[in-house]
Design a protein that fits this description.
The chain has about 170 residues and is of the alpha+beta class. Helices cover about 20% and strands about 45% of the residues. It is built from 3 helices and 9 strands; from the N terminus they run E-E-E-H-E-E-E-E-H-E-E-H. The chain has helices spanning about 40-50, 110-125, 150-155, and strands at about 1-5, 10-20, 25-35, 55-65, 70, 80-90, 100-110, 130-135, 140-145. The chain has a 5-stranded mixed beta sheet with strand order 1-5-7-6-8, with helices on one face. It has a 4-stranded mixed beta sheet with strand order 4-2-3-9. The chain is elongated. The model is unreliable at about 150-160 (pLDDT under 50).
């Protein structure tokens, strides 16, 4: 498992897809890109999709994703993306009351159970008290992050999977 914190944009792409039966059908698919602005997100999704789609496609929507951090799985069967909401539990020293801060993550896994396992694997390395408030499968097809060099990939370790905590 590794994690990546960035500004993520969810992009919807419309195009005509050739189905398994050979017929063409208009579809809209969602993807996520790592970018600094809407303009850069549009440019990046156009570059990424031009190598996968033959013919014309339109960008139907671009919005800032409701999460800043994504947990990537190394498992071969991890082909789905799950939006998760964790609640970090703290105690207010003055009132001695429990406070919960919601934080959203995107988690890659093959199954719902695998997504929960991936969350627990990453969060198990921290000392923060948390509750998994929700885990929902998304319709995202893929996530495109800025490419890493093979040297950087070699340095990527379990240490990278420690999440950055940020209340939203």
């Amino acid at each position: 498992m590794r994690s990546r914190t960035a500004i993520w944009f969810e992009c919807k792409i419309g195009y005509e897809k050739v189905m398994e039966d050979g017929l063409q059908k208009k579809v809209t698919e969602s993807y996520v890109v790592d970018a600094l602005s809407f303009t850069e997100a549009e440019k990046r999704i156009m570059e990424e999709m031009s190598s996968y789609i033959s013919g014309e496609f339109t960008i139907k929507d671009i919005k800032i994703a409701p999460y800043k951090e994504i947990f990537f799985s190394d498992e071969e069967m991890a082909d789905r993306w799950y939006k998760t909401k964790l609640q970090f539990i703290t105690i207010d020293e003055k009132t001695e009351k429990e406070k919960r801060s919601n934080v959203n993550y995107l988690v890659q896994a093959g199954t719902l159970k695998g997504a929960v396992g991936n969350i627990e694997r990453v969060m198990g390395t921290t000392m923060v008290d948390y509750v998994i408030a929700s885990v929902n499968e998304t319709t995202l097809m893929d996530v495109f992050e800025y490419g890493k060099s093979t040297e950087e990939d070699a340095k990527s370790t379990e240490e990278d999977a420690k999440p950055e905590f940020e209340a939203q």
